[in-house]
């Protein structure tokens, strides 16, 4: 999908050379990247961008100055994507703890389509680390659009009358959505918001926002003013001094308080910025520190229990000893792992083995339908053993066969059952789904409750979209482990190395918060607190009832097996939106629990939280509402759930039309794709749009007739009719079929164009 998008942009840039720019222009016509950068990836968006979707190349022209070029016959299949010129851009980022909320607002002009024509436009929004889209608002010449989160049950009712458009995720954390029928020469004003994580390294937090615009989005007119604006607000949540480190743009400090900073960048520019916006800061602590933030919910909150957030930061200087490690790598080598997934896994594990201490021990289990062991027991990580392990992987990591996860996991837990004086890890890598996933969770849960002082941690890594990421998250959660994923195969090695680095730098294990036992009711996400690593802060959230004390105590075990204890001061926070900061973490963990327990109440809880916060979930769906400018609904744009008593079809009768992009959730795995050994990234073949419409229309027609008729009645009636009546009935059905075909053809040719 990403490659096709890149090729379409390349075609669009070539097609845009038809546009006559006039004599008074600031830049030359858009040029594709140099010969060295002509891969499809070079044309993917590196900042929020809007593209004109061109199927008919004959409509491409300057809407202000016609070029009168020869007409172009034929159609673009797939449609070409011409990047629109950008007239204004503003970025606002609010950073709290390890999460940032980013808002982008800008305007783009459809400069490449005749004024008498219209085309669809596609918005593409690349987001930062673990980005999650929150909402989009669009103002076009005649229409208003805004996104709305609805429960998945409501989509079933609304989808019958709604339009299905291209949209979804182009790549991980790159969101796209289609805006239908925008007039040539008109201007689109767009606001888009998302949340993303801050990066953490050596005691510094870093915010990186994709904000690098290519030259060809700069307007050609010299006199057009171009203003860039960036506003940044930082609230570390710790109530301690913040030390600024680096920034990509010349920020002016507006305010400074203890634990809070405010900056502004505003400039008139000739060309748009071509570097991402980055900002890094450090909290002035060299040792392990933490605290608790407590907040009362708003009256609109679906959960009226108090909210809390516990944070532990490893500090800037790591003098503490890390744990001695025993790690078993459990690697899927089924047929679907062939190529880059398996090669990236081998490279990441090889790099991790070279970083192990000589007192650490390891083993490797490769599995498909069978299991293959590097050694029958754990091996010390000497240089010679590591070299033999790398050679063994080169010889045995050969993709083939099916997927069986339970057997190698049992073997790994058996190997680690006698661990003493170390922290045992099982590192599971897979790209497939299996039928007995809930059974695997039950088995692992029973195996991990006993054992030594520190039970084995299962750290899971999913590759692609065919594996059940919620199963992998659940495995990690029940064992205090960590989970990560690479949805695209080109990021397997880098993301896996990052996860391996995190588990290799564990400095505190078996963390518990004493005060939780004294509360009337408490719910913690995750329920079993993971270990603290020197590479990442630890943040857990939850809900509670009862009197929260002024100070709580966090306890655990250091790497030298001595006891850890730290007093955490409780602060009542009013200026940090804890509900929004913790929303994605809670939704992800609750979804895994809902999948595992098959609990409908948990599913409804996730849906309500998703609708309230705008964060995507498996039990909600994002839709784009279209409203005529002269027929605006009184309610403000936002996210809400339709009333249970209301008829969803009647809600749309207020002059609004609904557009559904593709499902944005990760899903619960694909057993069929796993059985067929489909490689990650392989997309199912889709019917052409016209065929989809015809099939949908035919199925709706047949279902309507079947709803009105009883099968037995039809059989009895047909048995009694004479030849003359049968002929008349046949002619009537033929006439109705002709009307149905005419309706389908008119929808295909003119659907959604409002008569244009």
From TrEMBL:
- Say which domain of life the source belongs to: Eukaryota
Q: Which Gene3D superfamilies match?
A: von Willebrand factor, type A domain
InterPro entries associated with the record = VWF_A, vWFA_dom_sf
Can you give the residue ranges of the VWFA domain? 326-503
Coiled-coil segments on the chain, per record: none
Which PANTHER family does the protein's record reference?
A: INTER-ALPHA-TRYPSIN INHIBITOR HEAVY CHAIN-LIKE PROTEIN (PTHR46503:SF1)
**Protein name as it appears in the record:** VWFA domain-containing protein
């Amino acid at each position: 999908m990403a490659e096709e998008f890149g090729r379409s942009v390349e075609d669009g840039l070539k097609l845009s050379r038809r546009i006559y720019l006039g004599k008074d222009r600031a830049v030359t016509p858009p040029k594709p990247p140099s010969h060295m950068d002509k891969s499809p990836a070079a044309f993917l968006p590196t900042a929020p961008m809007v593209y004109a979707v061109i199927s008919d190349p004959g409509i491409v022209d300057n809407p202000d100055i016609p070029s009168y070029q020869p007409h172009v016959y034929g159609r673009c299949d797939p449609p070409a994507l011409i990047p629109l010129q950008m007239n204004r851009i503003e970025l606002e980022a609010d950073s709290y703890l390890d999460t940032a909320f980013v808002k982008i607002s800008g305007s783009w002009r459809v400069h490449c389509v005749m004024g008498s024509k219209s085309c669809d436009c596609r918005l593409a929004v690349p987001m930062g680390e673990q980005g999650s889209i929150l909402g989009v608002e669009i103002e076009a010449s005649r229409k208003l659009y805004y996104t709305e989160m609805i429960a998945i049950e409501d989509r079933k009712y609304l989808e019958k009358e709604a339009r299905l458009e291209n949209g979804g995720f182009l790549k991980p954390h790159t969101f796209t959505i289609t805006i239908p029928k925008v007039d040539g020469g008109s201007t689109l004003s767009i606001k888009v918001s998302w949340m993303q994580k801050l990066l953490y390294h050596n005691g510094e937090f870093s915010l990186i926002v994709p904000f690098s615009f290519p030259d060809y989005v700069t307007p050609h007119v010299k006199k057009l003013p171009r203003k860039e604006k960036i506003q940044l607000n930082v609230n570390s949540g710790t109530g301690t001094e913040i030390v600024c480190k680096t920034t990509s743009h010349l920020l002016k400090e507006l305010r400074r308080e203890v634990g809070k900073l405010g900056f502004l960048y505003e400039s008139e520019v000739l060309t748009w910025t071509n570097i991402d916006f980055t900002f890094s800061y450090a909290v002035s602590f060299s040792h392990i520190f933490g605290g608790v933030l407590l907040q009362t919910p708003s009256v609109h909150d679906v959960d009226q229990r108090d909210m809390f957030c516990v944070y532990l930061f490893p500090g800037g200087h790591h003098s503490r000893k890390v744990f001695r490690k025993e790690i078993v790598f459990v690697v899927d080598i089924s047929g679907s792992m062939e190529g880059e997934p398996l090669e990236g896994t081998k490279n990441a594990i090889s790099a991790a083995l070279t970083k192990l201490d000589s007192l650490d021990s390891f083993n490797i289990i490769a599995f498909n339908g069978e299991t293959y062991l590097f050694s029958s027991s754990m091996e010390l990580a000497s240089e010679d053993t590591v070299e033999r392990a790398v050679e063994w992987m080169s010889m045995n990591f050969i993709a083939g066969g099916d997927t069986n996860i339970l057997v190698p996991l049992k073997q790994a837990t058996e190997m680690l059952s006698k661990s003493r004086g170390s922290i045992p890890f099982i590192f599971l890598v897979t790209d497939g789904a299996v039928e007995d996933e809930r059974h695997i969770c039950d088995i692992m849960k029973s195996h991990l409750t006993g054992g030594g002082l520190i039970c084995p941690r299962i750290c899971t890594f999913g590759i692609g979209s065919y594996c059940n990421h919620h199963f992998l998250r659940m495995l990690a959660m029940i064992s205090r482990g960590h989970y990560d994923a690479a949805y695209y195969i080109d990021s397997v090695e880098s993301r896996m190395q990052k996860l391996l680095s995190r588990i290799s730098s564990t400095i505190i294990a078996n963390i518990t918060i004493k005060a939780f036992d004294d509360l009337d009711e408490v719910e913690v996400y995750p329920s079993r607190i993971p270990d603290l690593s020197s590479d990442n802060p630890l943040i857990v959230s939850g809900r509670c009832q009862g009197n929260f004390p002024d100070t709580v105590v966090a306890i655990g075990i250091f790497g030298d097996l001595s006891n850890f204890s730290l007093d955490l001061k409780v602060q009542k926070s009013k200026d940090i939106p804890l509900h929004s900061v913790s929303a994605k973490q809670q939704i992800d963990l609750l979804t895994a629990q809902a999948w595992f327990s098959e609990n409908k109440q948990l599913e409804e809880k996730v849906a309500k939280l998703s609708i309230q916060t705008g964060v995507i979930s498996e039990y909600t769906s994002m839709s784009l509402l279209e409203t005529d400018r002269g027929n605006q609904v009184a309610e403000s744009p936002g996210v809400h759930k339709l009333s249970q008593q209301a008829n969803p079809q009647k809600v749309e009768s207020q002059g609004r039309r609904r557009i559904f992009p593709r499902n944005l959730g990760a899903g619960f795995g694909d057993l069929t794709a796993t059985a067929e050994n489909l490689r990650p990234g392989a997309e199912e073949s889709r019917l052409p749009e016209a065929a989809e419409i015809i099939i949908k229309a035919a199925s709706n027609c047949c279902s309507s007739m079947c709803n009105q008729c009883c099968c037995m009645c039809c059989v009895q009636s047909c048995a009694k009719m004479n030849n003359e009546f049968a002929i008349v009935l046949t002619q009537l059905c033929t006439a109705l079929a002709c009307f149905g075909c005419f309706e389908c053809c008119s929808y295909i040719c003119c659907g959604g164009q409002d008569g244009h």
